[in-house]
Amino acid sequence: MGVWTSGQYGIDEGAICSLPCRCEGGDYSVIEDFEIGDFAREKIEITVNELKEEREAVRKLGLVG
Question: What is the model's pTM?
Answer without folding.
Answer: 0.71
